[in-house]
């Protein structure tokens, strides 16, 4: 079986590709544009794995997609590729619409073209390509919560940032291709991930990195915003579960029942690293900042039997240790384009 994974050089995608190669016999075709967030070094441990093929390219490039589908007889598509950072979407929304909406539509079109095409394999058997399309979406499509309540799959979409609006639009298009053309799909909506290989623009690696370098820690507003954190490996297992057990056309929320205030996480990291809380600096709040996310994961836990394996305490310890052990990986990022972005946003 050949799986097309898009965005497989990013944080979650690279963890997913490695997880799948380790746990299954599938061949993985990994299509990634290697934007600032994509890093081929995230894949160095599978460089010589014959079941993994990396292709540099854009999910919006239909000619390339056609070629990949034909050459590799793609049967499953898992779309991680996206512009993923909220702050960047506030500064420059357009690329978010292009990649996250139009890119998704290009993928869907090509998947649809190939889905119903009966092809001969080398033993001259007829089979159908494109068994399933999975859209990796986010809990941010639901908008923000007050003190109480949880996001369920039926919560109305109310995205508040250009990023989340682009992801919500993509979800609607995926749904439409299922309803209109019968394309077999699932949509997953996960809460905040943390773990190895996360780009340092995101809260947890940013705080670890700045604290290690004794730089100030920019906390938006009062720091009491709440996110529901899940270790990336648990997210990978959840997508694997949806791939194998998900019911056609269904949406699955993914989360670990692990709500934390940002400031609590920052203090935990400082404490673990033995650094002073004086590094904390409250800065201007993010525009349209969502106050609280919290996932009701009962659909995926009861219907598909998935549940998270990591506790937050062990996951965050393991993550901090990974960043301590992989300073070279971080230093390479800090020597490039990222620093220009950091200067513009924070200084
Ligand atoms: P990331 O920014 O680390 O990685 C995105 C990857 O997509 C990069 O490798 C990048 O090069 C690639 N990419 C961007 N544009 C592309 C294009 N046009 N064609 C091909 N590749 C392209 O993001 P991430 O945090 O790994 O998130 C992956 C997916 O999971 C995204 O769709 C995101 O919306 C979703 N998600 C993320 C989280 C989270 O907490 N990080 C939570 C829930 C859902
Ligand atoms: O909920 C899932 C989403 O989680 C994903 O869809 C997104 O791709 C991913 O980026 C993430 O979005 P957030 O905006 O929640 O993550 P971020 O790490 O950017 O911020 C987490 C919280 O920390 C948020 O409340 C903003 C705050 N923050 C963030 C940064 C970068 C700060 O206070 N200071 C910072 O410098």
Q: Could you tell me the radius of gyration in angstroms?
A: 20 Å
CATH topology description: Rossmann fold
When the domains are counted, the total is 1
- The H-level CATH homologous superfamily, spelled out, is NAD(P)-binding Rossmann-like Domain
Rounded mean pLDDT is 94
Q: What portion of the residues fall into strands of 2 or more residues?
A: 15-25%
Arrangement of strands in the largest sheet: 3-2-1-4-7-8-13
Which molecules other than protein and nucleic acid are bound? nicotinamide-adenine-dinucleotide, 2'deoxy-thymidine-5'-diphospho-alpha-D-glucose
Structural class based on helices, strands and sheet pairing: alpha/beta
Number of strands: 15
Q: List the secondary-structure elements in sequence, H or E.
A: EHEEHEHHEEEHEEHEEEHEEHEHHHH
| CATH class group | Alpha Beta
Largest β sheet strand count, sense and barrel closure:
7 strands, parallel
Overall description:
- The structure is a single chain.
- The chain is an alpha/beta fold.
- The chain is 42% helix and 18% strand.
- The strands form 5 sheets. Strands 3-2-1-4-7-8-13 form a 7-stranded parallel β-sheet, with helices on both faces. It has a two-stranded antiparallel sheet with strand order 5-6. A two-stranded parallel sheet has the order 9-12.
- It is globular and about 60 Å long.
- It starts with a strand and ends with a helix.
- The mean pLDDT is 94.
- It binds nicotinamide-adenine-dinucleotide and 2'deoxy-thymidine-5'-diphospho-alpha-D-glucose.
- 2'deoxy-thymidine-5'-diphospho-alpha-D-glucose (DAU) binds next to helix 6 and strand 10.
